[in-house]
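#lab-general

N.A. 3:47 PM
ok so I finally got the sequence cleaned up, no stray characters, all 845 residues accounted for. can someone with queue access submit it? mine expired

B.Y. 3:52 PM
send it over

N.A. 3:53 PM
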Amino acid sequence: MAVAATPKNTLPTDYARGPWDEMLGADGRVNPSWSHVAAWLGGLTPEQAGATGGEIRRLLRENGVTYSMHGEADGEHRAWQLDAVPWVVSEQDWRTVEAGLIQRAELLDHVLTDLHGEQRLISGGWLPPELIHAHRGYLRPCHGMRLASKRQLILYAADLARGPDGRMWIVNDRTQAPSGSGYVVENRVVMTRAMQRLFHRTGVRRIAGFFRTLRQTLESFPAHAGAREPRVVILTPGPLSETYFEHAFLASYLGYALVQGDDLTVRDGSVWLRSLGGLEPVDVIIRRVDAWFCDPLELKEDSQLGVPGLLEAMRAGNVAIVNHPGSGVLENPGLMAFLPGIARHLRNEELILPAAATWWCGEKQARETVLARLDKMVVKSIHRAPTFGTVFGATLDAKDLAALRERILAAPECYVGQEQVGFSTQPCLNGSTIEARRGVLRGFVTSTPDGNYMVMPGGLTRIAASPDALVVSSQLGGVSKDTWVQGVDPEPFVSLWSETEQSQPELDSRNVPSRSGENLYWTGRYAERAEGTARLLRRAVISFVEAIGDDEAQLSRHREILMAGLVGVTNAAPIDAAKNASVVRDEEEVASLLTDPLRPGSLPDNLRSFRNAAYAVRDLWSPDSWRVIEALIREWVDGKAPSNRRELDHYTDPLNRLILHLTALLGLNLESMTRDAGWRLLDSGRRIERAQFLLSVIRNFLVETRPAGEEQLVMETVLAASDSLVTYRKRYRTHPRIELVLELLLLEPNNARSLLYQMQRLSANIEQLPRQLQGARLTPEQRILVDTSSRLRLADISQLAQGSNGSRKKLEAFVGNMSNSLYQLSNSLTLTYFRHAESPHFLRG
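B.Y. 4:20 PM
back already:
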């Protein structure tokens, strides 16, 4: 590809570049590979810079890209940060990086195989036994275990930075469960949309071929007897993991099931997935759980993240775990001191990509070197642990240096010292200001089915949080960049999916994991609970903002009834039951239910539960569905809007938007999701909750009899809360009457909000759920539905509508019986399909 003429340096005069800058050469001129990006930066106005950054943030927000930082303010589900300026790598530079990463992957694969096999590197003196055996990543139970593959190291990642000599250096090796590749895809999607012209003008290489090769490698492992292809799953620690978004994204992108430890079980030496249809065999596990937690029988005994017996199943050759559970030993930074010698010994060659000079303190001479130059060293623990990070000796005072010295002397085999190297800077866009910050590139490597290695043409670039920061880390506020590797020739489009020679592909009839089904079910329940609560709260807000009648006493009485019913339906105790009801008191009550996330039954509380359930199955949502979820979460759960002011009229529009978003999500689920078992559980959750909410509204508003004027206003509230007010007016063309209201809400089969309609939908859903063959016998769920539907159809509305002594006793008993039956149905579904759960979820009320 022809490169544009090198432009003049158009960067601002205060651009504080480092000794080596990626975009500017030693002479201060723009490097040819950066010419298009530099020209774009040179013509960028502050307004354009702000608009570009805003567009990138909008796209990331819509896609729901997050990176959690636990313990930080607003750290949970923190929005992913992406800089508008990419890191451009020339085709010539990338050839060197590619060759170096392949060489290093092959070398580390040999080390991994040897350390879990004959250990000739130790017996031959090439590696100190203390360095290996003292490392937490060396797992003795994994000795002798092998994958049924030509390579034991399937996935490899390395952090690289450009050193003072202009060469790319290795900073860290990542072999345990390399993360970041999913964020690379999201960065690329966003950049190709926000910077489309610049992207194509620069001639950037595609990355989809890397994931296609990864799929081919994973699916080259042996499959369960009778299966044409192996079943691959991604094992995640769960939604609390800082990179859970990536786990869910990769599961969706690659087409694999996302599972947690208790979704899997080992039976007869094989691994099985607990699905809605029963146990299904698993052949390959992509491990995103640290190996130490993978098997409580042989490793960390109190682990709740792993699968008991997993190592034995791998030892028997019945499952492949990627990466090999023993691969964590390769992340030991002390290995860097010995890899150059091992490369010369095994391959008779020097490392293409050097690392900073490293001394392992377990050796006396190396330890003395580190201690003598401690104020100039970078000290690391051989273990990755939050208790000891990277320490720069130059930043410590005499007292801290003395403490560090004592710590090293107490356990020298646990520490390494490295020469402090100043890495290159590159431009980033901070608002409308162009700053120079240090950057690190994480490159990704995968093995191929024939035993070679392939490097992703790009990677995850991260830059420091500030211009003077030395450490580059997402956990320390670092920002990501897309990595643009230039190609010489235009590249053809490469699909992620492999072409098949079979004219008729085999359909995948495998079931949804049990845990996913449970979270879909509770997503439906919490979404419906939130919508119903929002409709009631909107009615309450209107009662304060708009005058319902001219009679102030009647209006006050209606508010009192409305607030009592609202608290009863949401099952939220009053703020202070000792105080008498008043307009001010009621306004505070409504505001609390609108804004207080810590109050059980409040709207933010229900929406937070909805978000947690939906996020747990992030891999199953379509992009459009997740955009709707993100929109309502951003406004109500993340606390950015509505405002916390107590003027209730500020909440009318936000409530309208919330109801619209929840209705849109229902529409997308109805029109876009496949009618599989997961969808049926999602819809069943909505139907059960809609029925329970309707019964709760009837119990709290219609059981008590009232004077005619009050009764009509209360019935209008009930119809509005159940979204049936317009339907009633069109159907009956008369003022609300209790018999007609009950008929519409309980027995009208064509009213999508009626109790009978919910029963019909539940019967259709449960009929299609996977179940064991029982001949002509009904399942427990079907028996409950047949019984409940029969009692509902036989109900005498005229008797339910009758009242005496201030209440409708028969209606109260009927509502209680129906609600109890739905409660039993929910428990029966839990016991039948969510067996992995130690205890079921419970909604209040």
